[in-house]
Amino acid sequence: MRLLIAEDDPKLLKSLLHIFEHNKFIVDGVAAGDAALSYAQTGEYDGIVLDVMMPGMDGIEVLQRLRKMGMKTPVLLLTARSEVSQRVEGLDAGADDYLPKPFATSELLARVRAMLRRKDNYVPDLLSYQNVELNRSTYQLEYCGRSQGLSGKEYQIMEMLMQNPGILISTDKFITHIWGWDSSVDASVVWVHISNIRKKLDSIQAPLEIRFVRGGGYVLEGKI
Fold first, then answer.
1. Which residues form the domain of 193?
2. What is the CATH number of the domain that holds 182?
3. How far apart are CA 128 and CA 197, in angstroms?
């Protein structure tokens, strides 16, 4: 699952990114409201953790703009303000949940997991195609009792492919979704990761291939 974290305190932002990455989330972090709005508008996120008090555009305004655009991405508001009236303001603006600072890491994770479970398109912990399973919790590829671990980026690429079997995914889409729209990563990096995934699929004798289409991208298919 991919999250956007918006928090203007650099130490807290770094801590939040570490917490979610350690718990197997894919995360992007920003420190200002305008950046949060720009990232959120891409629609690439399963959920957003949004600080209310940020420079320039605050979290409430970001949330209101997203909802006016019709975006339904679930949002958890984080703030030092804990008065009931201010919590109501956030919820009325379209927030799915609200957590006052300071907070316990366990509660933050529990609230985010609950928020994501309420999504209409919530996805299970296992992805499966042609009897090959990708375990979202362990980053393992599994087939007929054999398993192979994936690195973080390999997992993210394989997740995109298994969510869209038989569909061509461009190199640019991989880069934007995994490294971010402003990344300087080039196509050769994607190729290296996919080459590694192919070797791991072969090692567990998985009946899958990742086919390259010149000028188009990559597509996951079952072996004939």
1. 126-222
2. 1.10.10.10
3. 16
Q: Quickly count: other Cβ atoms within 10 Å of residue 124's Cβ.
A: 7
Task: Using the 3D structure, point to which of 80, 99, 117 is the last residue of a domain.
Answer: 117
Query: In this structure, are residues 95 and 76 in contact, taking their beta carbons and an 8 Å threshold?
Result: yes
Collect all residues with Cβ–Cβ distance below 8 Å to 103 and sequence separation of at least 6.
Answer: 78
Task: Please tell me the predicted confidence (pLDDT) of residue 4.
Answer: 96
- The tokens describing 64, both together, are 């209101």
In the predicted model, residues of the chain with pLDDT beneath 70 are 81-87, 119-125, 137, 182
Question: 186 by DSSP, 3-state: which?
Answer: coil
pTM for the model stands at 0.55
pLDDT of residue 122: 46
Q: Quick check: 203 and 189 in contact, CB under 8 A?
A: no
Cis amide linkage into residue 102, ω under 30° from 0: yes
